[in-house]
Give the backbone structure.
Amino acid sequence: MGRVLAVIIWIITLLSVLLFVSGKWWFPAAISEHAPALDRQFMITIVVVGLAFTAAQVGLGWMVWKYRDTGKAGDRAIYSHGSNRLEVLWTVITAVIFITLAVMGQSVWANLRLNDAPAGSYQVEVVAQQFQWNFHYAGKDNKFGKTEPRLIDDSALNFVGLDSSDPASADDAVTAALVIPVNRPVELRLRSKDVIHNFWVPQLRFKQDLVPGMEIKVHFTANKVGKYELACAELCGQLHFKMKSYMLVLPEEEIQALTGLGQEQFQARMTELLAKYPLPTY
Amino acid sequence: MATMVTSTRPPAIKKGSGPGLPGPGPNGNGSKRDAFREPDSRGNRYRIGMWLGLASIAMMFVSLSSAYIVRSGNQRDWFPLAMPRVLFLSTALILISSVTLETARRRLRASLHNAYAKFLLLTALLGIGFLVSQLFAWRQLAAQGVYLASHPHSSFFYLLTGAHAVHLIGGLLVLSLLLFRSRRKLAEPIAIAKQQATADAVTIYWHFMDGLWIYLFLLLFLWR
Amino acid sequence: MSVETHEGVHRHPAPTGFIRKYIFSIDHKVIGIQYILLALAAVLVGMLMSLLMRLNLSWPGSKWKILEILFPTGAPGGVMNPEFYLSLVTMHGTIMVFFVLTTAPQGGFGNYFLPIQIGAEDMAFPYLNMLSFWVTFVGFIVILLAIFVEGNQGIGEWFSALGPSFAGGSGTVGPIGGWTGYAPLSALGKVAGPGQGAGMNLWVISIAIFCVGSLLGALNFITTLLNMRTKGMSLMRMPLTCWAWFTTAVLALLSFPVLLGAGILLLLDRIAGTSFFIPGGLYVSGLLSGSNPNFPLHTGGSPILWQHLFWFFGHPEVYIAILPGMGATSHILATFARKPVFGYRAMVFAIFAIGLLGFFVWGHHMFMSGMSPYSAIAFSVLTLSIGVPSAVKTFNWIGTLWGARIRFTTAMLFALGFVSLFVAGGITGLVLGQSSLDLPMHDTYFVTAHFHLVMGVASIFGMFAALYFWFPKMFGRFMSEKIGRIHFWLTFVGVYTIFIPFHTMGIVGMPRRYASFGEYEFLKSLDGLVMLASVAAIITISAQILFYFNVFWSMFKGKRVDSDNPWEATTLEWTTATPPPHDNFAGVLPTVYHGPYEFAVPGAPRDYVMQTDVDTEVPSGNGHNGHKH
């Protein structure tokens, strides 16, 4: 029984490790500046995880293989209550490894979250709702038109409550997809109309909750042109799984061209671009 | 049948240990420090149980307090209530009731049963008086059009005083039970010990309710 | 006077009559069994729900006749709609976490065996004990009610009369919000969609009731352990099960009240129009806040406040779910390895460390929530520190097996399985605890893999081990070892097959709480893994039929024990009759002379020395019970 258990544990361990290292199910190719550091930290961590997992399972299997009761009369186990020295040793080693991992992991976080978006970032206001995304672009004047909750009227397609009496809103555009420039920092101002949502593009290695009542500013830089799926990653109601959109990362010229256009033309151009760029192959 | 492995022989007395204690044996356990506690632990039990219960009640009010503090940080819709003056009366009443209950407890310890019952009754009446004064405060606010959902400070006012009142009512019910039982003449030492232990525990609870009121009073009207 | 009994101080006479003996009993043993039965019922409901979830994910659009009959609104034509699926998710989580993982390990086995293992006649407050079970039971009834109030139009309409936030009959089987019930979705009421009406109210009420039951129980455990240990039972001679139950009770005592407070605030937001968690300026389902009686005015509330309060409770809760299993594993491993626990004192400190640190890490559930990124750093580092005592425990379990003479009973198999699964589940905490790595992993199946392996599997294995182990003492009969072994193998291989693939699903990016994955191209590669997990789930869930059969059949027809100590164990429960008499020790409380795991003592007549063996000397030194090395 002990041997069978050991073998089964070892087989499970092997299969689990193979599943990970096969590479068949892994992150999609990254498209953001902070991604290489993040992916590296993930690799280091998952290797530590894998080693610890394997070592523990192998150790467990070894013990149940070797130390099964053979039924010999008078044959007793080793009488040991433990070893303080070992306790100290493995506590210290584990603590060093874990804390080192923890500290290493903070640099990616700190770079991304502890400082504001750099000056000259491309700004987009993101307003989430059940069950669609709304992206508000400032237009050529680089000023967002005022928005007011009491002006929101979904049936009239004023999803973000844009105040048309504000001159700054004349050149604004509000669409259902996100367009951002490549190789330029992007600042998203995240808001929500109703419940908590979460902005997520897997290739970006980036997530953030959109909390009603708060405006949360985040920033990142995308470095590969293309079209990417955008999903909601915080339960927001029954159509949470359908709250889908796209993020278009475009060359700077395209962005400049879009910025001059008003609502209708922006929308039309965006539809063309969405058709033009394919999704990545998976 | 079952193999009896429990030995009930008294252990051999080793030098240096108290009578009837095992050890200080080879395991190092059994020294005077680990000594078996005396059988009449009912008083201890009730007291420990009460403090644990109060710890959990305290944690609930801590969570409500932290919600209060966080919420008060949103200056845009924070309109501090004017304190209803009758709350000073509430405070006085509950403070005096703590004194009377403590007195009752000590009278019982001195076996003065009539005095015990009298002070219990007084405490209960003061407790009812406290609740009435709370009701006055609530009605005063309602007359001004300030209700539970009017604004955050009023929400917390009603919630915190209401939660406190609920716990106080629980205390009052137990006080009534003690009062009802105070008539009985008890002869057995166990029953007497039980009565004292119960009175002790209830007194701790009541003092806690008193302290909690003071804390809530200060929180609601000093932190705003 | 005989110091052996608490004569007159505590003794309550044995009950007579069926009701006093089995229904409203103050005997901790009966109450323990009641908790276990409650958990067995709850886990059945929870498993059926997860089965339906897997059926929906792997065979979407299928018509299930039984659903069409039972839930015509939520599964029209027998096809589950998204809100039906999400309510399954919510109810599965809620029922499993509260009514299974927070009942059986602590209220079930703890209630039954804590008093006996410390040599007491009963819990400190027997009536309070009975109350805590029945309060918990009422909580269970209320959550089950949510299924009917939402699932059935008629009952739902009747409920709607209670008030606007009690609108029922949406067709779901309960609220939609996940077991975490994040505001404002959970606070807004039916304006936010189906499953936000009566089901949500009942959810909050059920949990509030459960909090009270748990608190009463925790109070009892701690008082009993501090006050009622028998002569010679010093703290460092207690079995590790007792240490685990004690720490769990402390965690429960301090964390459940916070959930109760949060629940009250949420309920007030829902039914009294307050704005604790609901901010102003909301526009929900075409309505502006304050513009319509269906959507009253709210201002200034903080959704993140709910998360802080919930997770301040929620994190200690997961340790409440696992610690008793750890205690049982240590206990059972030593017994069937025929060896003392390796590093008893370190194990006690590890339990403390896990309990204490558990209060300071709740923010790791909130890295993406919009809270301060600085606090995220603090929470992250603290979270990885909590991995250290868990690792120490794992090393000590393996150390206990080193040099052992292992007897592979079913209980032992499950205890070994616990170690394997706890490592598998716990180790990915190293990934999730880092805030930067949470950026890709938050709200994906990687998280689901992690917590299912530790809570949904390791913890359950702890309970299985405990039941196979203690069943003979409780019922005087063995559970079938043959069926038990089949149960073990199917379940052990099954759960690994279900949950290891979940990790890679999460890495690819499968989000949690999605009723369907068909919308996204980047998820298309996962169909095979999803199917694998579903098939494994069907097999594993079916295998539990064997377990249920084994439990109930063995109670009446299992092989009778031929001794009070069939496993040749050392602790006090094995010194008394089988099953133990009403006052546990037939009027003569035991006296303890040794630590709890004196196996393989050199020179002793048998390979185990019971804690009450006055005649056997146990050698000193060599780090006994944690004393100096």
In short: The longest helix of chain C spans residues 303-337. Chain C touches chain A through 128 residues (CB under 8 Å). Residues 561-629 of chain C form one domain. Strands of chain C lie at 283-284, 287-288.
